[in-house]
């Protein structure tokens, strides 16, 4: 493999980590340790996942918050369960209301793109169904970090500075003031190593813990969200929060190289990863660093996105069902469109018939793949005053095109980028995996899975390997460490290859695998972030 000698920020010095009694892998060491401490207190993998997720809202607010959405795949007692904790658009938000204001696309920031947050509901639902410890015990580490503070880690500090430096210049409306006060308390973003604390965040987490999230959806916190939204001209109301509950769903799977790859069904984009793998399963790949491998991966991802971006939305509003898109016949049809030259992806006709990620496992066989996100870093750049609740802007994903499947509508859930993944084989759990990062997520799922399943890389090596990202048309971005000879070969095939030097945009992920014979856990974490694996 050829590495760029001038810039390779992600050459990992990590090795796979191994454990028997428990493992927590995520993007911040303090959150991972909080999850492991929860296991040691007698909790299971579900309790550890909730503790880690809540802690991440404090120690990684550049990617998620109490106002996030969440999704989870949970392996408990030999079965896989899916949880969709994404929220719908407010009942007063409609295309007509927005176009009457002269809008032609959904705004990025402010209260307009705010949908009902699902993360607190996810914590409560997971705890009630599968948890072992009381929710106040599970959320205690997050509450402590919010109250006492913590020093910023390097990747976190860099992202915080980049976002807030820009936002302090551009976000002058009153709706953003509490956000700026919260995350730039001295008029500037905190530096790496500086201690940041949020007592409002701590009080809100304590209220959520004590009421099992009832205060957030049907109590004092809901009233504060409603009041702030009304004062600032937003759409979300108490009734939107009061009617919200996360939904338990049946995961989707395709078989790839004898493994079942599981993703959640729409409104998430996990379907895109499955569509690409369904196309790629028809090929044999001799080696990883081969032009045919990369070319076919890229082309399959393009075709999968062409279908996913056209069809994925709230499942109640989908015009083409996932089962149709995942049929063997349709995969064969799409595979036949891949030739030697780069194609411009077009929508197929099926044969009818921002984010934080964490993975946990305990010594009893329970495992969780969990992801939660505010979208676009700090989300809507809105904090409900006095609460520390940083709201997401997931409604930005909606279309204002009346003919599009994902057109905004009251009570509708939007296309969602965040996707947890899970692997099984012959009905047994192999483990959770996930790579966060907008539309990079299904692309990274494909690349990391193929690194493991086609090319026999261990989880850490699979995450370390250089990545590419299809952007649009024939444009493909590659990391600075991407092999030069492959980049040149792709260009000869018609791909417009762009080599990046800033180190961002290629996802950040975690993997945990369980050895079926010994029960030993093997974990890998992302070199592109402050990733950490806590083991027991």
Write a brief structural summary:
This protein is α+β, with helices and mostly antiparallel strands. It folds into two domains: 17-246 and 360-397, no CATH class; 249-355 and 418-521, Serum Albumin, Chain A, Domain 1 (Orthogonal Bundle), CATH 1.10.246.130. The protein has helices at 29-40, 45-59, 95-99, 119-130, 135-148, 154-170, 177-183, 199-211, 214-218, 220-231, 238-242, 270-280, 291-311, 322-325, 328-335, 440-453, 459-464, 484-492; strands spanning 17-19, 22-26, 69-76, 79-85, 150-151, 195-196, 247-249, 252-256, 259-263, 356-362, 367-373, 383-384, 389-390, 421-425, 428-436, 468-472, 475-478, 496-499, 508-514, 521-525, 532-535.
Verbal overview:
With 536 residues, this protein is α+β, with helices and mostly antiparallel strands. It has two domains: 17-246 and 360-397, no CATH class; 249-355 and 418-521, Gamma-glutamyltranspeptidase, large (L) subunit, C-terminal domain (Serum Albumin, Chain A, Domain 1, Orthogonal Bundle), CATH 1.10.246.130. It is 35% helix and 19% strand. The protein is built from 18 helices and 21 strands. A seven-stranded antiparallel β-sheet has the order 1-20-19-15-14-9-8. A hairpin with a 2-residue loop joins strand 3 and strand 4 (79-85). The chain is globular, with a radius of gyration of 22 Å. The two termini are 35 Å apart. The model is unreliable at 1-12 (pLDDT under 50).
């Amino acid at each position: 493999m050829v590495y760029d000698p001038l810039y390779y920020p992600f050459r990992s010095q990590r090795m796979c980590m191994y454990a028997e009694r428990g493992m927590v892998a995520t993007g911040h060491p303090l959150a991972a340790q909080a999850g492991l401490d929860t296991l040691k207190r007698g909790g299971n993998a579900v309790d550890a996942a909730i503790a880690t997720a809540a802690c991440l809202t404090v120690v990684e607010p550049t990617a998620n918050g109490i106002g996030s959405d969440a999704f989870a795949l949970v392996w408990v007692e030999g079965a896989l369960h899916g949880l969709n904790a994404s929220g719908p658009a407010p009942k007063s938000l409609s295309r007509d209301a927005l176009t009457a204001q002269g809008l032609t696309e959904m705004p990025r920031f402010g209260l307009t793109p705010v949908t009902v947050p699902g993360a607190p509901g996810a914590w409560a639902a997971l705890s009630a169904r599968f948890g072992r410890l009381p929710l106040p015990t599970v959320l205690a580490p997050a509450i402590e970090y919010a109250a006492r503070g913590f020093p910023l880690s390097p990747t976190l500090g860099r992202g915080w500075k980049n976002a807030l430096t820009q936002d302090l210049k551009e976000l002058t409306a009153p709706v953003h003031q509490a956000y700026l006060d919260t995350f730039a308390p001295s008029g500037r973003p905190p530096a790496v190593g500086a201690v940041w604390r949020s007592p409002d965040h701590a009080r809100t987490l304590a209220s959520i813990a004590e009421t099992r999230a009832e205060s957030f959806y049907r109590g004092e916190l809901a009233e504060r969200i409603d009041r702030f939204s009304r004062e600032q001209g937003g759409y979300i109301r108490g009734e939107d929060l009061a009617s919200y509950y996360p939904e338990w769903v049946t995961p989707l799977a395709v078989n790839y190289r004898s493994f079942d790859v599981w993703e959640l069904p729409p409104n998430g984009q996990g379907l895109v990863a499955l569509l690409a793998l369904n196309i790629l399963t028809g090929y044999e790949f001799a080696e990883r660093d081969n032009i045919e491998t990369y070319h076919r991966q890229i082309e399959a991802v393009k075709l999968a996105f062409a279908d996913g971006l056209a069809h994925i939305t709230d499942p109640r509003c989908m015009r083409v069902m996932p089962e149709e898109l995942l049929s063997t016949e349709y995969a064969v049809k799409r595979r036949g469109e891949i030739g030697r030259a780069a194609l411009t992806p077009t929508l197929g006709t099926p044969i009818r018939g921002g984010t934080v990620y964490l993975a946990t496992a305990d010594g009893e066989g329970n495992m969780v793949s969990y992801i939660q996100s505010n979208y676009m870093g700090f989300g809507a750049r809105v904090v409900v005053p006095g609460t520390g609740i940083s709201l997401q802007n997931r409604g930005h994903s909606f279309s204002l095109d009346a003919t599009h499947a994902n057109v905004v509508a009251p009570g509708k859930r939007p296309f969602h980028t965040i996707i947890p993944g899970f692997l099984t084989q012959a009905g047994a759990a192999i483990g959770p995996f996930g790579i966060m990062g907008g539309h990079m997520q299904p692309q990274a799922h494909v690349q990391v899975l193929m690194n493991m399943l086609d090319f026999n890389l261990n989880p850490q090596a699979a995450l370390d390997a250089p990545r590419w990202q299809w952007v649009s048309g024939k444009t493909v971005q590659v990391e600075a460490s991407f092999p030069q000879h492959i980049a040149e070969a792709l260009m000869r095939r018609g791909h417009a290859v762009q080599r990046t030097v800033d180190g961002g945009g290629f996802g950040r992920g975690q993997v945990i695998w369980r050895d079926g014979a010994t029960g030993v856990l093997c974990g890998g974490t992302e070199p592109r972030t402050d990733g950490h694996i806590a083991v027991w």
